[in-house]
Amino acid sequence: xxxxxxxxxxxxxxxxxxxxxxxxxxxxxxxxxxxxxxxxxxxxxxxxxxxxxxxxxxxxxxxxxxxxxxxxxxxxxxxxxxxxxxxxxxxxxxxxxxxxxxxxxxxxxxxxxxxxxxxxxxxxxxxxxxxxxxxxxxxxxxxxxxxxxxxxxxxxxxxxxxxxxxxxxxxxxxxxxxxxxxxxxxxxxxxxxxxxxxxxxxxxxxxxxxxxxxxxxxxxxxxxxxxxxxxxxxxxxxxxxxxxxxxxxxxxxxxxxxxxxxxxxxxxxxxxxxxxxxxxxxxxxxxxxxxxxxxxxxxxxxx
Length: 303
Hints:
The chain has 303 residues and is of the alpha/beta class. The chain has 9 helices and 13 strands.
């Protein structure tokens, strides 16, 4: 399936901030609004963006309505998800893309928003895996990831470089960039929203998952034929877990053992995930991915 890029933004364009998953501190909503307004954008909050229903940002009906309304509004050019946290999966399969197809717009977020990224790609649209409201509120104006996101929204596509890692596997590949949170993507395996392996440069990250659980998920990708059919693999940040040494080695070492047989480029420790240096990536973009002979990394986005 061809992936369509929504139009890039211009000054004065309308952006909606909404909360499709977990509830959020309202100060981060206003902080993100101020940051986006400083870029010359017109920013509105979804009606239920600051709501609370248990751990969620409002009931499923509330969250669904906010996202559907934003998708249907022909004047909206981008939708910023305020945060992740469990809940986005509730909306998958319930959204109507008929109006969105007439006026596509950028979806922005990461973590549990991976479920929505998969949904948007399954419907043929690119989206942006990127920091959300808290990051836009607490990080300074000159924060590199914030600047990359701004530039990306206004049509300036980045070329990223990353440091070498001893487990990196050299090579060059072209393909479609897809991925996000490993556990969320794993939960969509075998559904219409699964990530297709052929032609994909896959990036993965996760938070608060024990090493053996991550290894189990990667074994699923290996035994299911996903890994062997990729064009490249980008292993990002795995954070906030207890290192239990149950694998007999560290997590990256265990993952290296599972992917070292493949001939395509692989990089470890790429700056994407639940960390401050969480580089924005366009899901569905054609990219050129190079791991050089000295194991340094270059990732270039294109249409």
